[in-house]
Amino acid sequence: MSVVLENSRGWVLDACSLIDQSCSRCIRWKDNQKSYVKCCFKWHHFQILKSHYGEKETAAMDAGDAGTLQQADKPSKKRKRKRSELNQGEIDSQVFHEKVRSVILEGTKSLVEPAQACGYLNRVTDTVKDPLPSHECRLAALCDMAKELPLGEHLEQEEHAQVLVAKDGSASHVDLFSRVTESRTDCATVVTLMGEEYVIPAHASFLLSDFTQIQPLVLYEKKFDLIVMDPPWQNKSVKRSRRYSSLPSSQLKRLPIPLLASPSCLVVTWVTNRPSHRRFVRDELYPHWGVQVVAEWFWVKVTKSGEFVFPLDSPHKKPYEVLVLGRCRPSADNSTSSSEAPVEDQRLIVSVPSALHSQKPPLAEVLKSYVGAEAECLELFARSLQPGWTSWGNEVLKFQHVSYFTVAPVDDPADKAAAAAASSSSGGSSPA
């Protein structure tokens, strides 16, 4: 179960568990041969055992109670610059942090402590030394190359989508760049695409393309009740690391949200702790799309023992990120539909973050009560897939690569059924 605990403050999530739920039994197609396997996301990606506190703070926590969130009550003793030395962005960050500090601290305590009582988020001493996958993701580069290909706008409507796996298990003919690819099987599949193996959840659809080639998603002509996006925000860290290409905030306005969203669609945007990004989403981006802000939530990142991954009052990195939630509204109509589930403000999502850069926790289980179990869901700028969702991005398959999973063979269900039938038949016969 991915939702470990829920109360009025929010949720404690086990992100790895949710990934595993969708891959507990997979059909593996290799060289057109079919077999059955179990795929488990390598759990040591989520083994964040130590917080990034200084040595003195860490020693104090080790000497104290296991519930170390109390340490966050005490501001860091590091020398702080005078307010006059801060630039405007830093001042804005400080002001926002002071507003939400008690929400983060008290809410996290109210979630972590009962989770620990249930046996989750307790201190772990065993560590796994396996290295993180060294697979180099080449998807973004392939998307750049695919720009030279025609988009296929002349295709008939029914040709804007394609089936991932043919009856013979073949997936080599699939055009990943100009059509939405659909997995129509009731269980996950492991298929070879572009010479690499990927784990594809059941009923997942995806388009592999960059910002300039998003038109096939519009031509797909599906309206979505939930749209989640994790934009590649510009910042100095990303620029230095060159992990991925960032996108100017102004370019986000070009996303065709009005063409993709159903009436009253819930739009959720991951925002960095940079105040200008949060203001842009609230004051420019959402109004441009006709989206009304309804709530702000916080993703709180903790270690396996329930500590904040960074000091709560750190002037550099905070242990939380913001999600801005909004509802699509018809023009000049800000009324709330009676069928809409109200979205509570300032709720927390507490989880152990992945050690893999930019891997966010899946939100399907948390958001389904606000959009309905049968909602059509879309993730933009995705780096992984979710069962039943449509996903788009230039690295949309990144964390589906088989190198992130352990793969083990399991019995063919047809063989097990035959064995059970034979056993039942044998057991039911009377001796002569």
UniProtKB/TrEMBL annotation:
<dbReference type="InterPro" id="IPR029063">
    <property type="entry name" value="SAM-dependent_MTases_sf"/>
</dbReference>
<keyword id="KW-0808">Transferase</keyword>
<dbReference type="GO" id="GO:0005829">
    <property type="term" value="C:cytosol"/>
</dbReference>
<dbReference type="GO" id="GO:0008173">
    <property type="term" value="F:RNA methyltransferase activity"/>
</dbReference>
<dbReference type="GO" id="GO:0009007">
    <property type="term" value="F:site-specific DNA-methyltransferase (adenine-specific) activity"/>
</dbReference>
<dbReference type="GO" id="GO:0003676">
    <property type="term" value="F:nucleic acid binding"/>
</dbReference>
<feature type="region of interest" description="Disordered">
    <location>
        <begin position="64"/>
        <end position="88"/>
    </location>
</feature>
<dbReference type="Pfam" id="PF05063">
    <property type="entry name" value="MT-A70"/>
</dbReference>
<dbReference type="InterPro" id="IPR002052">
    <property type="entry name" value="DNA_methylase_N6_adenine_CS"/>
</dbReference>
<comment type="similarity">
    <text>Belongs to the MT-A70-like family.</text>
</comment>
<keyword id="KW-0489">Methyltransferase</keyword>
<dbReference type="InterPro" id="IPR007757">
    <property type="entry name" value="MT-A70-like"/>
</dbReference>
<dbReference type="GO" id="GO:0005634">
    <property type="term" value="C:nucleus"/>
</dbReference>
<protein>
    <submittedName>
        <fullName>N(6)-adenine-specific methyltransferase METTL4</fullName>
    </submittedName>
</protein>
<dbReference type="GO" id="GO:0032259">
    <property type="term" value="P:methylation"/>
</dbReference>
